[in-house]
Amino acid sequence: MAGVLDSFAGRFGRVEPRRTAAAFVTGLLSDIEVKTCWQLAEQAGHARPDAMQRLLYRAVWDADGVRDDLRAVIVDRFGDPDAVLVVDETGDLKKGVHSVGVQRQYTGTAGRIENAQVGVFLGYAGRDGHTLIDRRVYLPVSWIEDRDRCQGAGVPDEVEFATKSELAADMITAAVDAGVPVAWAAADEAYGNSSLFRAHLRQLRLGYVLAVSRSHLVPLDGGKVKVRADRVAADLPASAWQRRSAGAGSKGPRYYDWAWLDDVTTDADPDDSGRHSLLIRRNTSTGELAFYRCWTPQPATLAQLVRVAGTRWTVEEAFQAAKSQVGLDLHQVRRWDSWHRFTTLALAALAVLAICAANAAGEAEDDPSNTGLIKLTVNEVRRLINTLIIQPIRDFAHRLHWSQWRRRHQARARQSHYTRRLKLELQP
Question: Which residues form the Transposase IS701-like DDE domain (predicted)?
Answer without folding.
Answer: 8-218
